[in-house]
Structures are given as C-alpha cells and as structure tokens.
UniProtKB/TrEMBL annotation:
The protein, known as: Hydrogenase maturation factor HypA
Pfam families cross-referenced by the UniProt entry: HypA
Superkingdom field: Bacteria
Gene Ontology molecular functions: nickel cation binding; zinc ion binding
Family: Belongs to the HypA/HybF family.
GO biological process, one term: protein maturation
UniProt-annotated binding residues for Ni(2+): 2
Chain residues that bind Zn(2+): 73, 76, 89, 92
Function: Involved in the maturation of [NiFe] hydrogenases. Required for nickel insertion into the metal center of the hydrogenase.
Keywords: Metal-binding, Nickel, Zinc
Stored InterPro entries: Hydgase_Ni_incorp_HypA/HybF_CS, HypA/HybF
Organism lineage: Bacteria, Pseudomonadati, Campylobacterota, Epsilonproteobacteria, Campylobacterales
Organism: Campylobacter corcagiensis
Length: 113
C-alpha cells in the first residue's frame, strides 16, 4: 500500500509549511488526485486517518478533489475530458491523444492558523 508512504511525505510537507509560515495548526489539507495517478483516494484517506494521530495534521480535514483525464487530440486539435479510461477522442474518434491532466497528485493548498 504505497498510499501510506504518500501520507508520511504529505504530513512532513505540512510540518515544513507550518514552520515556514510561522503557524501552529493545520486545519485543512486540499489534494488534487488524477484518475491516472495510481493513487486510490479511499486508501489514501484511510491511511491519512490512521497516520495523522499525534502529528500536526491530527485535527486537519483531508479534502480530495478528483481530476478527470484531460486530453488533446493530435488529429482534430480539440481538448476533451475523458469520463472513462477509453482513450479515444470524443470529437473525432482518433486514438492519437496527448494527456494534459489527470496523471498526477498535487498538494493544492493548506489552511493553517
């Protein structure tokens, strides 16, 4: 379960941001997780809930925003959102696609006090 190692790094990043910003408490952690990132949001949430105890994130709410797959078709030049992992352009049916978003996980913001 690589989600636990992600959570360990995430909490360390939260601690670093608290120090840099002279804050004492994390209230919310906002993540963007792409559908192609390889991260399972429900497993990440479970790992977070277990690991956060007795850390700076102990009372922080984890907010996960799922990112759809955004592609650009190299045939018709249109950008589209894929709702399924079906890599065909919804406009022209081509499979010559470039993924623009949905492959990564990002820490989008922290609410600190």
């Amino acid at each position: 379960m690589h989600e636990l190692s992600i959570v360990i790094d995430l909490v360390a990043l939260c601690e670093e941001n608290l120090r840099k910003n002279n804050k004492s408490k994390i209230e919310e952690v906002h993540l963007k997780i792409g559908r192609l990132s390889g991260v399972e949001p429900h497993l990440l949430k479970s790992a977070y809930d277990v690991y956060k105890k007795e850390t700076v994130c102990e009372n922080a709410k984890l907010i996960i925003n799922l990112q759809d797959i955004v592609v650009k078709c190299n045939s018709c030049e249109k950008e589209s959102i894929l709702k399924k992992n079906e890599f065909l352009c919804p406009k022209c049916g081509s499979n010559d696609l470039e993924v623009l978003d949905g492959e990564d996980m990002y820490l989008m913001s922290l609410t600190m006090s």
